[in-house]
Amino acid sequence: xxxxxxxxxxxxxxxxxxxxxxxxxxxxxxxxxxxxxxxxxxxxxxxxxxxxxxxxxxxxxxxxxxxxxxxxxxxxxxxxxxxxxxxxxxxxxxxxxxxxxxxxxxxxxxxxxxxxxxxxxxxxxxxxxxxxxxxxxxxxxxxxxxxxxxxxxxxxxxxxxxxxxxxxxxxxxxxxxxxxxxxxxxxxxxxxxxxxxxxxxxxxxxxxxxxxxxxxxxxxxxxxxxxxxxxxxxxxxxxxxxxxxxxxxxxxxxxxxxxxxxxxxxxxxxxxxxxxxxxxxxxxxxxxxxxxxxxxxxxxxxxxxxxxxxxxxxxxxxxxxxxxxxxxxxxxxxxxxxxxxxxxxxxxxxxxxxxxxxxxxxxxxxxxxxxxxxxxxxxxxxxxxxxxxxxxxxxxxxxxxxxxxxxxxxxxxxxxxxxxxxxxxxxxxxxxxxxxxxxx
Length: 440
Ligand SMILES: Nc1ncnc2c1ncn2[C@@H]1O[C@H](COP(=O)(O)OP(=O)(O)O)[C@@H](O)[C@H]1O
Ligand SMILES: [Mg+2]
Fold this sequence. Notes:
50% of the residues lie in helices and 20% in strands. By secondary structure, it is of the alpha+beta class. It has a five-stranded mixed β-sheet, covered by helices on one side. Strands 1-4-3-2 form a four-stranded antiparallel β-sheet. β2 (86-88) and β3 (93-98) form a beta hairpin.
């Protein structure tokens, strides 16, 4: 649209300018014609004065008429001089009376003997505002007019010419050529612009792709750190305890510690496999979920923290829950992240007041999980931002646990909500997961 308008505007401007220029030229030419006509008419009229005075007493009329065909008759008055110097006759004729001589002059012939007179659409010779001679007809389309008084004492006529622009005579090819030129220019320019836009968009896309790739890599790296941190710390502590037991000659407990370390190592292995899957983009492994077993696994993984802080862990999972299909590790990670936060949130609790509870029930073609704890709950800001990557209130926190949790839940087409429990004030995370989905 803009293209068409700018093309039209440019074409109109340049063609309009050319039309105005050529019309001006036409006008100048006509003005020159008028000046020539005026000069010729003036000369002819002046000749009448001369002829009339030079005529012999008995003029040879035919000789005069041969030279001046527009003088139709000659007359001589012997005595009385005619009382008017100029008497209008019929059809463009008039009598010119000077002394005792009279000439009948035909303006039609006078004008037709002058070359170039045909160039005006309307030509008038008038005397005292009375037309003596008229050629062509007045038209409202004539908007050029030239008018000049003839400086003759005996024949003070007014010469008037009207004309109109010769539209057909304008050099239209030259006038319309700019439209073509502008059309081409506007076309080329718009072509250039759309090419440039396409290039810019392509550039932006590749930049964006690069950015998201970097983002994903960063997220993945941070995710790995976040997930490996806890089991590694646990393994370290199990091993240190085992060493101490050996030194204190209590080999009986070592086996249990090593077993706990093995569980953590297996988890690290599973996590690394999952990250590898993410990296090479493999399909996630959907399986029927046995919620009770997964929860027990999570509690085992957090066993060290739970037992050292004496946290009471409880759950209520009905047997008749609808079967959920999901990658088991995802569900484990979700529960682990929430439970781990619950443990950390209760670090400042009085001894014996810490607890974590999981309940599950069927709801809306899915299952509803709720994890609650006996901690202080979340601040107003944390309630708003807990799922944002890198939001953390802990000095050594990364702020990715809940962001990852939400991502996993969303990939399972579920949702997660957080609130504080009324009364006790602890945190409450509510997760809904649909059960009909077998695949991502
Ligand atoms: N159970 C909870 N009780 C109180 N605050 C919590 C709880 N769970 C999460 N939060 C808040 O949410 C923040 C983000 O948690 P998370 O994403 O796991 O990151 P991180 O554990 O590294 O801080 C925590 O720093 C904490 O302020
Ligand atoms: Mg956390």
